[in-house]
Amino acid sequence: MKVATRKTSAGTEYWDTEAKQTRFVPAGKKAPFEVTENPKSMLDKDTKGKGAIAGSNGEKLDPNKTPDTTGLGSMTVPVLKTYAANKGITVPKEITRKDDIILFIQESEEKQQDDKTEE
To answer: Which residues are CB-contacts of 87 (< 8 A; sequence separation ≥ 6)?
Structure first.
């Protein structure tokens, strides 16, 4: 399966899932292979046509939620962990990627706010 990954003025790059490599087709040329549009294996099935992509750990990524709404994206991983600790949030050791830590912090902060409103 070949999937278009990036288009530039010079041409289009495709990801070849069998060969595990990118293939480049110059602008104005037709791809000499069959291109798969909207491959189901890369899209989450529960999105009802919205095209949300599943995360690396299989979690559904919310296309409406941006990871850097609070400025957390400019922080390093150690600073993010310190920020979380100061907020009373314990980041599990299994969560190591910056984007995953940001998402975990945001979800924990939302839960804390929900718990406060219930009181």
So the answer is: 105, 108, 109, 112
Over residues 37-47, the mean pLDDT reads: 59
SS3 helix, strand, coil % of the chain, rounded to 5? 30, 20, 50
Q: What is the pLDDT of residues 60-115, one digit of tens each?
A: 555 555 445 567 888 889 999 998 998 899 999 999 999 899 999 989 988 888 87
Angle CA 20–12–46, to nearest 5: 65
Is residue 106 within a helix (H) or strand (E), and if so which, with residue range? Answer: helix 98-118
Place of tokens 């919310």: 62
Question: Residue ranges per domain, the chain?
Answer: 2-42, 72-118
